[in-house]
Amino acid sequence: MLQICYKHGANTDGGTDLSEEQITTQEPQNTENTKSTDPKMKKDRRDYHLMLFIDNKKDGGVHQMGINSILIEIIGLVIAVTLVITIIGWTVNSHIRQNVTAERDALAARVEELSAQVDTLTAENTTLADKVTILSNTVNTKVEHETAAQEESDAAHFPQGFPLSSSASMTTSEDDPKCLIFSCSEGTSVISAGDGVVLEVLPDTDYGYCIRIDHQNGYISEYYLSATPLIKEGDAVLQGAILALVESKDSKLAYKIYKDGDQIDPMEVIKIDG
Fold first, then answer.
1. For the segment 224-245, what is each residue's pLDDT rounded down to a tens digit?
2. Which fold has domain 169-268?
3. Under a CB-based contact definition with an 8 Å cutoff, are residues 175 and 220 in contact?
């Protein structure tokens, strides 16, 4: 078995070796006897650290190894510095870990918040999309209705109607081939060929009266008749509205149409049923 002993003492010129007897007995010596009164020995006295390796075998010996005190201090200083660096590193790493954990938690919270905002925006977008669809359908329906109404209004203002409430014989004027002459029986109504506004009600030397209707689309229709007019200038009339009532037999109605100021053949626009 190997034993290690450590001893601190003073080194003199007499050497630092210990005898085997001194090691085994381990008897304390009288300090008064060990103290030297020799000035030279006091001058050469030095501190030393002694480490002994002892082998307890029968033939075991004693091995001595001296360690300088400066080396011990250096080793202690290295250990202390290493310990301080370790503590500082652990503290810094702990602080960094705490910061990383806090940042990670903050990022996780931010991600959760953004996810909630995305869900909210998605729901709002869906709602807006539904509203846009409804609004688009409403607008389309309104446009369709307005288009149909406009087409109906255009058709109503177009002077395509027959100018009499009943059938009648028809010829063209010898002086004006674009003027239609209708032979009317008593009680027949002279009606408007389309929606419009009564532009004028004028006396006429040949027939008695002339009624002019502006259909507000570039067309103007003129009715020359002997019957007393039932409307006056400025009246709004619809297609089929009664303008006058034929009061005598074999009455004549002269009918003319103008488009943008130019006279046209009424047969180009009149729609005759039957």
1. 999 999 999 999 999 999 999 9
2. Glucose Permease (Domain IIA) (2.70.70)
3. no
